[in-house]
Amino acid sequence: MPFEEKLIYALKHPVREIRKTAIFIIGLKKMRSAIKELEKILIYEEDPIMIIEILNSLKNIGTEEAMEIIERFKFHSSSLISSYINKFLVHKPINDNN
User: Fold this and answer.
1) DSSP class of 88
2) Rounded CA gap, 92 and 38, in Å?
3) What's 57's DSSP letter?
4) pLDDT tens digits, 62-87
5) CB neighbours of 45 closer than 8 A, spacing ≥ 6?
6) pTM given for the model
7) What is the per-residue pLDDT across 24-76, written as a single tens digit (0 to 9) for each?
8) 51: nearest Cα among 43, 98, 4, 13
9) What backbone torsions phi and psi does residue 96 show, to the nearest 5 degrees?
10) Which of 2, 13, 36, 55 is most buried as measured by Cβ atoms within 10 A of its Cβ?
11) Strand, coil or helix: what is 13?
12) How far apart are CA 49 and CA 39, in angstroms?
């Protein structure tokens, strides 16, 4: 099994730290093939730390599809998640007048 397939398979591992590590590596490798799987996890994941890790990986992947997923979480019910996205993940236009 290719390494990238193993990473996607590891997203369903019962051990949280293994899933978290797989998510991190997916982001480092900018694995576009994992975007849909990461999006599926976001539907049921309740742990804010895991959600933030997934959003960071999506930011690293950086495709339009990945950024659209992040945008959908800007107004998450968890203030921790929504403020993190708005501070660190969403590009804000630079004001050239300053």
Assistant:
1) I
2) 24
3) H
4) 999 999 999 998 888 899 998 999 88
5) 51, 54
6) 0.87
7) 999 999 999 999 999 999 999 999 999 999 999 999 999 999 999 999 988 88
8) 43
9) -80, -5
10) 55
11) coil
12) 15
Show the tokens assigned to 57.
Answer: 């990986």
Residues in the chain: 98
Q: In 1-98, which ranges are continuous DSSP H helix?
A: 3-10, 16-28, 35-44, 48-61, 64-72, 79-84
How far apart, in whole angstroms, are the C-alpha atoms of residue 91 and residue 37?
Answer: 24
* 87 token code pair: 């501070």
3-89: which CATH architecture? Alpha Horseshoe (1.25)
For 5, the token pair is: 């397939």
- As given in the structure block, the two tokens for residue 33 are 């093939």
Tokens 């290719």: give the residue: 2
Q: Dig out the tokens for 65 from the structure.
A: 């599809």
Amino acid at 58: L
State how far the Cα of 35 lies from the Cα of 40, in Å rounded to an integer. Answer: 9
